[in-house]
Every structure is written in C-alpha cells, then in structure tokens.
Amino acid sequence: MDSDSTFPADPMPVLRRVFGFDDFRPGQREVVDAVMAGGDVMAIMPTGGGKSLCYQLPALCTDGLTVVISPLIALMRDQVRALHEAGVCAGALTSGNTDEETDAVWEAIEGARLKLLYVAPERLASGGTERLLRRANCTRIAVDEAHCVAQWGHDFRPDYLRIGDLRRALGVPLAAFTATADAETRDEIAARLFDGDPQVFLYGFDRPNLALAFAAKDGPRRQVLSFAAARRGQAGIVYCGTRAKTETLARALADDGHSAAHYHGGMEAEDRRAVEGRFQREDGLIVVATIAFGMGVDKPDIRWVMHADLPKSIEAYYQEIGRAGRDGAPADTLTLFGADDIRFRRQQIDEGLAPSERKSADHGRLNTLLGLAEAQGCRRQVLLRYFGEGDARPCGNCDLCAKPPELFDGTTAVRKALSAMLRTDERFGTGHLIDVLLGVETDKVRRFGHDRLPTFGCGSDMPKAQWQAVFRQMMGLDLVRPDPERHGALRMMPAARPILRDEATITLRKDAMARAERRPAVKTLVSEEDAPLLSALKAKRRALAEAQGAPAYIVFNDRTLIEMAERRPATLDQMAGITGVGAAKLEKYGAAFLSVITGEVPDPVHPARRKLAGRSQGDVYDRLLAAQTDLIRGSDGTEKPLSCSSSLLAKVAGARPDRGDVDRVLGPRYADRFGAAFTAILQEAAEA
Ligand code: ADP
Ligand code: ZN
User: Fold this and answer.
1) Does ligand 1 come within 6 angstroms of the Cβ of 48?
2) What is the mean pLDDT of residues 489-518?
3) Which of ligand 1's atoms lies nearest the C-alpha of 22?
C-alpha cells in the first residue's frame, strides 16, 4: 500500500468516523497537529480533557505504530478494549495478557496492521521490547501519566526512567501527557524524557462540569446518606478520613438500598482489586474509601464524589473531586468539614516528622483549603486563583454561586471570642469557651471560677450553633490554632492581633450556621421528561456490557446516552450524529439503542447500508434502492427481474459519478438496466 495516500492529513473525518465526536475539546486540535507534525510534545491537560485522543488520533492518521507507555495494566486493557470497539487495531503487552491476546498482538504486528501498542513500563527493562518496536515500524512514543518520571513526585515509577533511552534508541518523536504538573515537575519531565525542549501545551485547570460545594458537618452520616439518596443508581466515591469509617458508612449506604463497597489500604490486595474491578464494571456502585482509592481508578462516568471528612490540602481536594465526570457530563461534589477536621489536620501536621519550615508550609496549604471551605463568593474563582488562573468569572456551578452566603460584620463576635480565650489563659478548647461566652454554669465553669469573668455570658445574644461557626471560621482563617501540646486548647495567632486591638474588621459567613437542608430533591442528569428513556438506555447498555464482561462505558459513555435521550434519534442516520457514536459502534449497537428509543424493532437494515449511516452516502444509497425498485422489471416493466446486492449498491453509492465509473462498478449486465438512473442520482448528489 502506498502510505502517502492511505493516511489522511486531515484528522477531522477520522475524529468523526472512528470516535464519533463532532469536534475537538479545547486544546486537542493544537496538540494533535503538533504530534502529527512529528515534533516532541509535552501536554498538560486536566483530567478528562481527552488526552488519549491526542495520541490515538495521530496514530490513526499517520504511518506506522505508536507505542503507548502507561503505568496501570487495568487501564491499558480498558483502553485497548475501547479502541477495539471503535474498530481500531490496537493491543497491549502486559503481564496480564492471555496467550491468545499476545498472539493476536504479534499477528497484527507481522501483518503491519497494529496502530497502537500499549506497553507497561516494566517491559522496557527487557532488551526484547526495543527490538520488537523496531520491527513493528514504531514511529512514535506516547507517554501517559508522564509525571511518573519525576523522582520527587508522588507517583514515581523507576521504570519510567528508561523511556528516554528507548526514545534515543528508536530515534522517534515522543509525546508526553499529564494532568498534574507544577513548573518544577514539568522541568523534570522535560529533562528526563527529551533531549532538547519539547513543544509545551498547557491547558487550564478548570473542570467546568464539576459542581463544587462544601457544607459544615451537621450529622455527617445523615448528610452522606442524603447526598447519595439524591443520586441513587449513579456511580460515586465517598472519601473518609479513617479506615473504620469506610466500613461503617458503606454498611449504612447498603442498608439504605445502595450498592456500596468499602476500600482502604488495610485490605488484602486481592479484595482491593475486587472492589476496583466491580467499580469499573458495575453501573452505579458507591465506593466508600480512604485516599488509597484513586490511582487505579480510570472510570470516566463517576457521577459524584463526596468528602465525608476534610481532605488534607487543596491539591488533594482537587485531585480527589477531579476523579468525577471525566466524560465531560455533569458531576457533583460535596465536601464536609467541621472544627474537628481542622483540629485533626493541624495535629497531623504538627505531629509529623517534617522539618519546621515544611510544617508551616503545610499549615499554609491547609489554610488555603479552609479558605475555600469558608469562601464568601464563587468557589471556583478561589480555586482557580490558587492554581494561577486569576481572571475567572463567577462560575454559576458552585453552591455559593447558586446561593450567595449571607455575610455579617463578625468583628465584635471575634473580639469577644478572643477575649474569652485570653482571659482563660489560652488553656481551653471551643466547647468550654462557648459555655463561658453563653454564660452556661457548668461544673467546669464553676471549678475554674470562669463565671466571675467579665466575658461570662457576654455572647448570649447569639445561639450556640453560631458561636461554633464563628470559632470554626476563626480556625479556618488561621486567627486561632489548636495547640497539640495542650490537648487542642486554642491559641491566638498573630493575624488576630489587629482585630483584638480594634485596628481591623472582619466579615464572616452567616449561612454556614444554618442547618443543612433536609433530603434534597432527586438530581437527575436529564429533564424529568427524558429520565425514563435514559434509564431504559442505561439498562440496554448494562445488558450489552455484561454480555461481554466489559464496563458499561465501553459500549457508550453517559454523555452519549444523555444526548440520545434528549435528541431521540429516529433513524440510524440521526443516530450517527450523536457524539460518541462512531462507525464501528453504530454498526454494532446502533439498532439496539434505536429500538429502545423508537420503541419498536427497526426494519432489518442490511449491514452494507448500515455502514453508510450518517454519511451522505447513506442518503444516496436509499435513493439508489428506490430507483432500483422502479427498474426491477426494466423501464417498461416487462423484462426479467433484476436487482443488485446490497454490497453492490453500497459500492455504487461510494463511486464517482462519471459514467465510466458507475458502469465499471456495476458490470455490463447491471449497467445496462441501472447505469443511467444511478449515474443521474450520483450526479445530483454531487451537485447538492
Ligand atoms: P484524560 O485526559 O483524563 O486521559 P480521556 O482521554 O480518558 O481523558 O477522555 C475523557 C473522556 O472524554 C472520554 O470519555 C473520551 O471519550 C471523551 N472525549 C475525548 N475527546 C473528546 C471529544 N473531542 N469530544 C467528545 N468527547 C471526547
Ligand atoms: Zn461559582
């Protein structure tokens, strides 16, 4: 085959036909162009931004094989599966392969058909891999999760260090992809993977489809159950601070009728893998987990993430909620926090073994997260500002945009609280201080004679819950800190001094004190009217996925089903216009989903016709078929019946409308009867 003419220079038609996408996501076009041009590329794109496409599409549009290095075997297998579904010749070489799978890869390499080969980094240690790749006409290396090459990063994989040598040995361009890379990590990636400077593409951190929300703890177990109840049947993760809590919460969710499992680092490896596998495959499982759950998770249709306890930093928060909604469809997040969380996190830092400058940096990062939790305006603005994107506008997709918090001048309240602290020698925690402020005569108050303090009862104008919120916000703003050496007694921080001296004022949130709402209304992904159809489409998807032991999203992702439910395609041609319905999937699943939508079993459509669905040729085919029916007994209706096979008609539909071409495709016998009529149809279509 002549490779120049086989591979289109324009990736757009391939994007549509193979992947079923109408257009590129932000940044994809530039990265794809740069990769196709054959340069070294480093792309930093947010999770769910569509990094895979940036090397898969160029692989399909250019000559040779692209080798993909990726750290997780389960993910590679899913990717290969998804590519097969899209009709792409791809394979993986991992320790998890069956012999048949490995044989199939070899055969595809021998036949020069293989376009994408996923390889685990461990494989690079053997000299055989390099030889294999040479033989397979490897023309490009793609590195997924490229931050794994950074030694000071948290996911360092020593085998990634071999990638640079492989690139030099093969002498091919390399494209590296990651979602998490600060400037330091970026430099390290560049130094280890490339010789010169790669072309760098940096796309924003924003994930507009993630709804952001925080809530003060107020019966956290009830809050978790209520959030899950509103999202019944949707896959979600609940992150907890302790292992024990994952088990009790998972049980509570199961008792409430959800399908739920727990996951933490103390479980046997085998049990952990079983949960990961279920989460990947099953529709709508809730996993209640510690942060040990995540690295091995590549499920694009996680619809919600909830933190039952405050995460440890703003980076951790964003990474954890970022696991939701990778398919781009809306996803919800909610983070619970309370004074105990703040105390716990501060203590964790103070009692850690890090040097003191490190500890104060960690306190600072915790402060940023608390600032987000207690934010007084759009949360996304606060978040993006932290990540260096300072010019974002209010997002309209966070709890504070939906319902701006009520603010009040908290200066007097804070001064009263500080005074209560100082007059009791900074030896007490929130509970006792609030008793003093409210004027409650407890034993402890009497024992210490605190009922004789001038502050005693000076805060009785505010209810207890409000005082709790004031103290929590004071901790969040780092005006006061629990002292780990004195059992969490609150100490004043320098930032509080100007307020105490009446040199500064402070604004606090009022609504954080309001009780959390009761069971919220059920959240659906589509309007009420389309919801039953979406459920039916999901049931069909589940059946098809289970039949092949594959995760549901391999068939179609949520976004695709949502679009089907909303647009209700009535024909295969319309079905082909749905995002995510490429040619191979249309052929395989189109009719099954169409029958769910139209409620009827569609006319059996010949496979040759089905292949043309969604292209203008589909329409031409239908007109050819009509013309043929008219001419079946000749133009005067007296001749012997003659009709073309469906595949012949499909061929004609793809022919060029100059007379010779159509006749040649038809052959003399058919050309005699149909040639003129068919040519007219093709000419008309070409002019349209
Ligand atoms: P990540 O950047 O996290 O690796 P993926 O490559 O897994 O993201 O893509 C996330 C999701 O987005 C997948 O479900 C993928 O099918 C979808 N996707 C990628 N590119 C497009 C596009 N151009 N149009 C629509 N969906 C896309
Ligand atoms: Zn907002």
Assistant:
1) yes
2) 81
3) 24
Q: Which residue's CA is the closest to the ligand 1 atom numbered 24?
A: 21
The verdict on the CB of residue 236 being under 6 Å from ligand 1 is no
In the block, which residue shows the tokens 């162009």? 33
Domain chopping of the chain, boundaries: 12-202, 210-402, 407-509, 531-604, 616-687
Using CA atoms, how far residue 497 sits from 76, 346, 409, in Å, is: 56, 21, 17
Q: In angstroms, what is the span from residue 404 Cα to ligand 2's centroid?
A: 9
Note the pLDDT of residue 589. Answer: 95
Is any ligand 1 atom within 6 A of the Cβ of residue 29? no
Q: Does 210-402 match 12-202 at the fold level?
A: yes
Q: Which atom of ligand 1 is nearest to the CA of 49?
A: 2
pLDDT of residue 97: 85
Please give the full DSSP string across 25-77, using - where no structure is assigned: PTTHHHHHHHHHTT--EEEE--TTS-HHHHHHHHHHHSSSEEEEE-S-HHHHH
Residues 423, 425, 427, 430: is their CA dihedral positive or negative? positive
CA 127 to ligand 1 center in whole angstroms: 33
Pick the CATH number of 531-604 from 3.30.497.10, 3.90.660.10, 1.10.150.80, 3.40.50.720: 1.10.150.80
Share of the chain above pLDDT 90, in %: 51
Pick the atom of ligand 1 nearest to 25's CA: 23
679-682, Cβ contacts within 8 angstroms, sequence gap of 24 or more = 681/620, 681/623, 681/624, 681/627, 682/620, 682/652, 682/655, 682/656, 682/657
Which tokens is 605 given? 């459509």
**Ligand whose nearest atom lies closest to the CA of 395:** 2
Closest ligand (CA of 82): 1
Global pTM value: 0.69
Q: Is the CB of 11 under 6 A from ligand 1?
A: no
Rg (CA), the chain: 31
Ligand 1 and 579: CB distance under 6 A:
yes
Alpha carbon distance 544, 539 (integer Å):
9
User: CA–CA separation, 172 vs 142, rounded Å?
Assistant: 10
Which atom from ligand 1 is nearest to the alpha carbon of 15?
Answer: 23
Please give the distance, rounded to the nearest whole angstrom, from the Cα atom of residue 31 to the centre of ligand 1: 14
> Can you read off the two tokens belonging to residue 357?
């400058």
- Fold held by 407-509: Arc Repressor Mutant, subunit A (1.10.10)
Q: Whose CA is nearest to atom 4 of ligand 1?
A: 51
Which atom, in ligand 1's list, is nearest to the CA of 47? Answer: 3
pLDDT at 5 over 50: no
Q: Give the model's pLDDT for residue 4.
A: 42
| Predicted pLDDT of residue 539 | 86
Q: Contact 576/570 with Cβ under 8 angstroms?
A: no
CB of 328 within 6 A of ligand 1: the answer is yes
Q: What is the pLDDT of residues 371-427, one digit of tens each?
A: 899 999 999 999 988 877 777 889 999 999 999 988 999 999 999 999 999 999 999
Q: Which CATH architecture has domain 12-202?
A: 3-Layer(aba) Sandwich (3.40)
Q: Tens digit of pLDDT for each residue in 33-45?
A: 999 999 999 999 9
Encode 13-24: b = buried (16+ Cβ within 10 Å), e = exposed. Answer: ebbbbbbbbeeb
* Ligand 1 atom index nearest CA of 24: 23
Residue 409 backbone dihedrals phi, psi, to 5 degrees: -75, 110
Class of domain 210-402: alpha beta
Determine whether the shortest distance from the Cβ of 241 to ligand 1 is under 6 A: no
